[in-house]
């Protein structure tokens, strides 16, 4: 589709720099580099985080622990990150976001090395907790950064790229973990992956810090050049007070709860899928990790492309379009996952896993972009921190819940069925949330 053309205008875009000339009619007046770099950050985060899932059988054999402790590794890591999320969100609303993200990525690389040198399970567990604590800190500043670089109709694609990196990192981390653990030993896995982490951190420092509210200002320029700017509001002193103010936005509350239930299912699925295939299909763990990674990655790519295109296509012209699109994809993912757990046969199971990944990957960027649409620019860092806070708790519960049930009943298949009901609850909740979305989105621009 050809882009609309507008008269070029000069705007202040970057702190301490002269105004730049842009065409507000372009979908992405500043290009896609910022979104690509953030996608790489999300990718390397999930690769490092999910190495354990691919190498889990080898690590369990080395240290000698059961499924409950195995499920507790990502859960404890995520909870450690949650503790720092609200301060990170507040810092994202005040500090230089590109510097915050770059330093966080360097910290991930250091924590990955610590995992490789751990000599006891306690030390390994502690290193993963440190990685989890650092891993959650990139999301609030990165999400806020994207909202300022990209106006409303480009946000679905921008967040789609970030979510593509994030969810491609899941299967790639699983596949790399399994393959390298089999080939060179599980310790070497963590040393090797630290290197690209350093490279990505250096790329982050090439992105300029934009002025806050820049994307919203471009939206107003599209309506009428010289339109009034949104009034600046004094930031509140209390972090918890700001969080309560953000949570008064009804649509945001619905999206947060819906996404947290989705992440519970998705986190549990990806963490345990290689082990599930190993136990039910009799595969070696490196083959199981490779299949899980390949099939999941293919589904994620298709879902991101479809979800982003469909979600952006009618944004602003059809009521609650992004939420409705997200609900449709989520329903597809939930139904396919149900079949993948219940129906026998490796080819059918892998096909349904791929289809479930299409659904989840198509839903998440639409719901993430919808949350950006309903939060004012001055509060987006904290808004995304609150979103990440609750969704991280949801995602953290998935692996531990499955591990507990698996040890209790002796069946990983039965344990995976516990992921299904929360997904359908999320569908119903998000459908109801759509009633208030358009009004909340209008308020965010005033």
UniProtKB/TrEMBL annotation:
Query: Listed GO cellular component terms?
Result: plasma membrane
Q: Where are the transmembrane segments?
A: 30-47, 68-88, 100-126, 164-183, 189-207, 254-273, 285-306, 327-346, 352-370, 382-405, 411-430
**One of this protein's Pfam families, by short name?**
MFS_1
Q: Which PROSITE patterns match?
A: MFS (PS50850)
**Topology in membrane:** Multi-pass membrane protein
Q: List keywords of the entry alphabetically.
A: Membrane, Transmembrane, Transmembrane helix, Transport
Q: Which GO terms describe its molecular function?
A: transmembrane transporter activity
Start and end of every Major facilitator superfamily (MFS) profile domain? 34-433
Subcellular location per UniProt equals: Cell membrane
What's the superkingdom here? Bacteria
Protein name (record):
MFS family permease
The source organism is: Nocardioides soli
């Amino acid at each position: 589709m050809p882009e609309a053309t507008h008269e070029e205008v000069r705007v202040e875009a970057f702190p301490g720099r002269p105004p730049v000339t842009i065409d507000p009619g372009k979908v992405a007046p500043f290009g896609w580099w910022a979104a690509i770099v953030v996608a790489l950050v999300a990718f390397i985060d999930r690769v490092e985080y999910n190495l354990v899932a691919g190498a889990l059988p080898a690590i369990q054999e080395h240290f000698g622990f059961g499924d409950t402790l195995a499920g507790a590794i990502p859960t404890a890591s995520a909870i450690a990150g949650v503790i720092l999320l609200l301060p990170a969100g507040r810092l994202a609303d005040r500090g230089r976001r590109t510097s915050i993200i770059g330093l966080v990525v360097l910290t991930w690389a250091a924590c990955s090395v610590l995992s490789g040198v751990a000599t006891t399970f306690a030390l390994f567990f502690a290193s993963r907790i440190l990685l989890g604590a650092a891993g959650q800190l990139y999301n609030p500043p990165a999400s806020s950064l994207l909202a300022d670089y990209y106006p409303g109709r480009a946000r679905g694609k921008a967040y789609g790229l970030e979510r593509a990196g994030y969810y491609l990192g899941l299967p790639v981390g699983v596949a790399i973990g399994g393959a390298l653990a089999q080939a060179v030993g599980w310790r070497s896995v963590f040393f090797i992956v630290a290197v690209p982490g350093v490279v990505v951190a250096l790329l982050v420092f090439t992105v300029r810090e934009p002025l806050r509210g820049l994307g919203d200002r471009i939206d107003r320029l599209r309506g009428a050049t010289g339109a009034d700017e949104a009034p600046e509001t004094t930031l509140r002193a209390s972090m918890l007070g700001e969080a309560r103010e953000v949570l008064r936005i009804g649509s945001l509350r619905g999206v947060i709860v819906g996404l947290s239930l989705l992440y519970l299912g998705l986190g549990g699925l990806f963490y345990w899928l290689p082990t599930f295939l190993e136990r039910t299909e009799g595969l070696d763990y490196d083959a199981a990790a490779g299949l899980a990674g390949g099939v999941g990655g293919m589904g994620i790519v298709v879902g991101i492309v479809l979800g982003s295109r469909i979600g952006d296509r009618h944004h602003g012209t059809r009521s609650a379009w992004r939420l409705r699109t997200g609900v449709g994809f989520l329903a597809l993912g939930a139904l396919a996952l149900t079949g993948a757990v219940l129906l026998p046969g490796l080819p059918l199971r892998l096909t349904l896993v791929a289809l479930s990944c299409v659904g989840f990957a198509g839903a998440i960027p639409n719901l993430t972009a919808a949350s950006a649409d309903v939060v004012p620019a001055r509060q987006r860092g904290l808004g995304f921190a609150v979103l990440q806070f609750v969704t991280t708790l949801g995602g953290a519960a998935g692996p531990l819940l499955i591990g507990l049930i698996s040890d209790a009943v002796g069946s990983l298949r039965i344990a995976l069925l516990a992921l299904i009901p929360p997904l359908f609850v999320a569908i119903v909740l998000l459908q109801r949330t759509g009633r208030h979305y358009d009004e909340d989105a209008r308020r965010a621009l005033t």
